[in-house]
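Data card: per-record layout.
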Amino acid sequence: NCLAPIAKVLHESFGILSGLMTTVHAYTNDQRLQDLAHDDAYRARAAGVNIIPSSTGAAKAVGEVLPDLKGKLTGIALRVPVVTGSVVDLTANLRDEVTKEQVNAAMKAASVKALKDGGLQGILGYSTDPLVSSDIVHDPRSSIFVPDWTIVLGDKGKFVKVMSWYDNEWGYSSRTADLVVMLGKLL
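The structure for this 187-residue chain is written out next.
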């Protein structure tokens, strides 16, 4: 889940009161390549040539792993005609006033701090490169934060937008592999 790392950092650093997320998501094998019948009328449309509004469980899932955020986040997905490479756009109302620099510094610090020390190294990336969707294909991290896209309403404010890339297949598979290794150590 690409949303969880950036939501965790924002919440632990500045307190999320509420948030709306949009994931601009590569199409998946549940979608049709041509307009055909499907239980979901939106997903019945041709995936390779349309931007398709869809539901997402990402925000709800964050509430399950970060209980303080349960019920505070919601969102939608836009399925787009790329094979892989997706991006999460999170707009949040924060408890604390912040600057763009403070938000970016918190994300950078979490991205380099080891997991055992409470950081998100290997899960959350931080990139100043001008990334596009194909640049993050096969990136094992769940979330690759790009500081250039951070927006704070006003010079210092409580209304913030952050964005983070992810490979919707590879990042998930990497976390599944991490879980298997962790479970193996318990046996």
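Known properties of this structure: The longest strand covers residues 86-98. Residues 3-186 form a domain with the Dihydrodipicolinate Reductase; domain 2 fold (CATH 3.30.360.10).

See the next section for split statistics.
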